[in-house]
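Support request, please re-run this one:
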Amino acid sequence: MLEPSNNSQLPVIPGKRYFTIGEVSELCGVKAHVLRYWEQEFPSLSPVKRSGNRRYYQRQDVILIRQIRSLLYEQGFTIGGARQQLSGEGAKDDLVQSQQIIRQLRTELEELLLILKA
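Re-run finished. Output below.
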């Protein structure tokens, strides 16, 4: 889903379990009000809500938001088209997503190795 060139423009996803809406906004290059709107439009995007209705996104939510962003902003899909594209993902798209996760993990591990060597 995410083109490698577009993905490289976004910051690396830190190895945290939960992210606030502000952190996700920075990681995905999307404003917080847009994220709240997307929660209504994309049923698969549902962050954990805790006290005071604070949203906490998990890593897979951040990856999904990056996919939605790519579909809407880079590939020119409408909200309905992006929703349909996400719901109709087959094995090929799962493979692409797995490859992206592996590339992300590899990058993070290489950065960690450089830190450990220093």
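The longest strand covers residues 48-50. The helical segments are 4-9, 21-28, 32-41, 59-74, 79-87, 91-117.
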